[in-house]
Design brief:
Shape: rod-shaped
Largest sheet: 6 strands, antiparallel
Order of helices and strands: EEEEEHHE
Strand order of the largest sheet: 3-4-2-1-5-6
Number of strands: 6
Structural class: alpha+beta
Low-confidence stretches: 29-33, 35-39
Strand content: 25-35%
Length: 148
């Protein structure tokens, strides 16, 4: 994935880049729930932190690239892990917990198991995301300064 933006701040080897929204965002139904924020002038932008290997300075227009598999992996983690945990927890609750608590309703135990596994998956997701943030291979990179 490639984006073009303007460097707004430098922090050591990292730079904060302001990226304007794409034209593809025009018809999007997400609206305010999107990561892009409005500055009040119908100019929507997002700030990202990128590794500044090109040596860009504040105010320069740059091309930022990120590996596409990073987004795919992130999407699978954010959506797939909680969904799988919910299903596995519900099945485990219905069959395993029902064997332990014989007088309880199996559907109630299924809901309890699913919800518990769902909550635990978010805790695991937080730990996994912290570890992934530390790796520079997952960080967007400023690869090129665009001359105006």
């Amino acid at each position: 994935m490639e984006e073009v933006g303007v460097v707004s701040r430098i922090d050591g080897v990292n730079a904060t880049v302001v990226i304007e929204r794409r034209q593809a965002c025009e018809g999007c139904k997400e609206g305010q729930s999107c990561l892009f924020t409005s500055d009040g002038n119908d100019n929507q932008t997002v700030e990202i932190s990128a590794l500044n290997i090109a040596g860009a300075k504040v105010g320069q227009q740059v091309r930022v690239t990120a590996r596409s598999y990073t987004y795919v992996r992130g999407t699978l983690l954010v959506y797939g892990l909680p969904a799988a945990a919910l299903l596995i927890g519900a099945v485990a609750g219905k069959y395993l917990l029902a064997g332990v608590f014989k007088t309880s309703n199996p559907e109630t135990l299924s809901a309890l198991g699913g919800f518990s596994a769902f909550v635990v998956s978010f805790i695991a997701l937080k730990i996994i995301s912290r570890n992934l943030e530390r790796k520079t291979e997952n960080t967007p990179v400023i690869e090129h300064i665009i001359e105006l």
